[in-house]
Amino acid sequence: MLRPAKAFDKFPVFRGKGSRVKCEDFIQHIHRASFLSGRTEDAKWMAYLGMSHLSGEALHWWHGLDPQSRLNWWWVEERMLGKYGSDFEHESSESSVSVLPPNTGRIRISSSEPGLTMYIRRTPIDYSSCFGGTCDANEALVVTVDRSTKRIEIWDPSNSGTTYLGITWKQRDPDITTGSWHWGRMAVVSAGSNSTVRSSFGKAEGPSQVDVWKLSESEEIIPVWTHPTRGEYQLEMAVNMAQIVDVEAVACYQGYYDKHKGGYPAYRRVYLMFEPLS
User: Fold this and answer.
1) CA 214 to CA 147: how far, in whole Å?
2) Are the CB atoms for 117 and 133 separated by under 8 Å?
3) Which long-range contacts (CB under 8 A, 24 or more apart) does 34-41 make?
4) Residue among 235, 226, 224, 232 at smallest CA distance from 269
5) What is the reported pLDDT for 9?
6) CA-to-CA distance for 269 and 249, rounded, in angstroms?
7) Burial class of residue 82, CB neighbours in 10 A (0-12, 13-18, 19+)
8) How far is CA 264 from the centre of its chain?
9) CA 179, chain centre distance (Å)
10) What angle do helix axes 73-84 and 43-51 make, rounded to 10 degrees?
11) Model confidence, pTM
12) pLDDT of 265
């Protein structure tokens, strides 16, 4: 008897409006399952997978779609988001968006592969206190970019202090060179903590920096690390799609992937893009 792949264990069922499973979360489960199954470009397979996990109102909606078009997952996904998805509202009020300071927006996670549209999540991951990804724009972290420096401020009108989005390394003494598999995560770093404050997560602690983000003319957010003697080094970004969406800054994506692919095959290289809201 064939055992189902782990990607389908406890696969959620989406029932439409009022469903306990959010539309965006359901779509992200389809993306993860297709990646783990090697089917990221098989839109028909993904459509059947999605349909087989619909129920109630959502299943009736799917049957009402064009019979040919509904077998193309990307077509279905666009319409599913339009019908059941959440629109971004900061603090649930349009007036709050109007008072956002200049150069304020969210960070979109992009990939050269189809089917990956996510944002850096506003709430840090519980076990690491670092930021992961979400496909729900309502849950996106809102930041203010200082285009004259390499700093990104976390925008929080309820907080009287100033906090910044920085990078904290997993390794105590990270090897930040080409070919290295060492990695870090996006974390809250206070001002003035460059190379002096250590933030901990998991079983190790590494150095943190706050001046680590360059904004290109195309609005790409490029992670950089400044070594005290070797100068500036450009990092790469990766996500682990297996379970919780971990977002990691890596010294070298190829070295990182080669190190982890045996136990964690669901890695993708990604890019960070600034999406202005003001």
Assistant:
1) 8
2) no
3) 34/115, 35/115, 35/241, 35/266, 35/268, 36/5, 36/6, 36/7, 36/241, 36/242, 36/265, 36/266, 37/5, 37/7, 40/113, 40/114, 40/115, 41/114
4) 235
5) 57
6) 10
7) exposed
8) 17
9) 24
10) 40
11) 0.63
12) 55
∠ CA 70-51-30 to the nearest 5 degrees? 100
Q: Identify the pLDDT of residue 180.
A: 95
Q: In this predicted structure, what is the pLDDT of residue 192?
A: 55
3-state secondary structure 41-76: CCHHHHHHHHHCCECHHHHHHHHCCCCCHHHCHHHH
pLDDT score at 207: 87
Q: Which two tokens stand for residue 103?
A: 């150069």
Identity (one letter) of the amino acid at 144? T
Q: If the chain, 278 residues long, is cut into consecutive pieces of 10 residues, what is the mean pLDDT of each piece?
A: 49 88 88 80 88 92 86 86 67 47 88 74 73 82 87 76 84 91 85 45 69 90 90 90 75 88 69 87
Q: What is the DSSP letter of 84?
A: H
Q: Which two tokens stand for residue 8?
A: 């389908």
Tell me the residue ranges of DSSP E strands in 73-113: 104-110
